[in-house]
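FYI - complex with phenylalanine, inputs then prediction.
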Amino acid sequence: MSTLPKLVDYSEAELDQAFKKLTAEMYADLENCNSESEAEAFRIKWLGRKSGRLTTIREAWLKEAPKEARRYLGLLFNNLRETIEEYAVSNVALAKGAQVVPVGSASTVLGRIRQREADAKLSAERLDITLPGLQRPVGVKHPVLRVQDEIVAVFKAMGYSVGEGPEVETDYYNFESLNFPPNHPARDTQDTLFIAGQDSRPARDRLLLRTHTSPVQIRTMEKQSPPVRIVIPGKVHRNDPLDATHSPVFHQVEGLAVDTNITFCDLKGTLDHAMKALFGSSVKTRFYPSFFPFTEPSADMQVSCIFCGGKGCRKCKFSGWIELLGCGMVDPNVFEFVKHNGYDSSKISGFAFGMGVERITLLKYEVEEIQLFYEGDVRFLEQFA
Ligand code: PHE
């Protein structure tokens, strides 16, 4: 075992030089250990408690060092110690599982440590440029939502604002304030899903899944005095069995305009413009007498058949027309419920309409079955991308 040189002045230069030598010596030892016993000999030589090299250094240099040199000396010493401890551990481990070693620098334990580090680095950075890239399909809006947004945009362009309301509604908003008196047969036209267990509540407070977006008419008028121009998109529920064109859950866009001197003419002009914006300028509209408790007069609006242009085909049952939405002039009885907020039917009037979004989407994209909108089949949906 080589002895330690004596230090003269403990200057940084002298210390640097001394530790450089020690480090070189340590690496040379490391290069030479190839077996478990050699690895153990390395450990004893450098880390041995009684006469290991580090202990000797501590005794010979650290204890003798003048105060000013101690910090720097300590630093170099700790550095060397940490390096040695690290190697001693992996050294023994590697030597124990010593495998067939390739030639060159990898023929020593240190060589193997370095080799292993380099291999790990390489495999972490491995990149197979022949693989195809990751495909990230771009999501798109669901066709129903897309058409709903389109309808809303058409009315926004005419100065309408957009509103919303709750899907779980009270009997009062869904029926009573829309002029469906309790037990009135008109309620039967909207097969309602009621929330269970509310028998102790007064009838008007009982909860149900809204059957249409019309309750938001009243909710809007309670909050806002006339004039009003609003569209309300949203989900509605009816106890309807699913068939090609009906679903128990579907979407509507409601519209309401209230002001002085609003006439049926405004209703017709507005809806005719909206249909042309949605289906193209050659589409025609017509209004057919109908009944809703909350409009008077009421109408069903029909559009000339999108498929045959009005000549008559299977889709329009050879009538040339397709029924699309309900509408009418707001019934004065409805205004009675919000009279306190400026809705005096001797001074103002209004119109309302409600359209089914799925129905319009079916027509626009010539889809045969409403179920396709809810099944979530990507092969169907990606056609709208
Ligand atoms: N709420 C009616 C329905 O769902 C449609 C409608 C809205 C009719 C507004 C007239 C006025 O059938």
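Strands lie at 161-162, 168-170, 193-194, 207-209, 228-237, 249-259, 285-292, 295-304, 321-330, 349-356. Residues 98-107 have pLDDT under 50 and may be disordered.
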